[in-house]
Amino acid sequence: MKIRQQFVSNSSSSNFCIFGIETTTDVIKTLFPHAFDTKIMVGCNHKFDRTTQKFCGECGQSAYKECQGNVHTFANSLMDGCIAKPGYYDEYFIGIDVQSKPLTKELQQNLEAFDTLIEQKFGQRCCFLIKE
């Protein structure tokens, strides 16, 4: 795997190209202690009385389920459209997917806002990361 942190081309052989940072779940847990808290979620989208029925009559799923937050839901909670891509072991690339996107003024403004947000929350600036 190659990770470039400078100018990158829009290579069609790339698995991904994001504007962001490389981090670990340990760093996220340290900076954001509640990032991976357990949440109670609805078990399915069918409508039924969840106060009296423990399971859905249509699909059999539990009325509610516990969901452990993960790095992917954490990334999206930082900013709409933010993604997490796995690296080696417990490393993650968190950022905005820029592969095959034209550089418009709107995208440039989003990247600038994201860079500011990441610097405030993680204390580091974003760069272009490419995995081939």
Fill in the keyword field for this structure:
single chain, 132 residues, alpha+beta, four-stranded antiparallel sheet, 3 helices, 25% helix
Task: Describe the protein's architecture and organization.
The longest helix is centred in the C-terminal third of the chain and has 18 residues, at 105-122. The strands form 2 sheets. Strands 4-5-1-6 form a 4-stranded antiparallel beta sheet. It has a two-stranded antiparallel ribbon with strand order 2-3. The chain has 132 residues and is α+β, with helices and mostly antiparallel strands. The chain is elongated. The protein has one domain. Helix content is 25%, strand content 27%.
Write the layout of secondary structure elements.
Layout: E1 16-24, H1 25-31, E2 38-42, E3 64-68, H2 71-78, E4 82-86, E5 91-97, H3 105-122, E6 127-131
- Helix and strand succession? EHEEHEEHE
Q: Number of DSSP helices?
A: 3
Straight-line distance between termini: 6 Å
Overall 3D geometry? elongated
Uncertain regions spanning at least 5 consecutive residues: 6-14
Number of domains: 1
| Sheet with the most strands: spatial strand order | 4-5-1-6
Mean pLDDT: 83
Strand content: 25-35%
Helix content: 25-40%
DSSP, total strands? 6
Give the structure's gist in a few sentences.
The chain has helices at 25-31, 71-78, 105-122; strands spanning 16-24, 38-42, 64-68, 82-86, 91-97, 127-131. By secondary structure, the protein is α+β, with helices and mostly antiparallel strands.
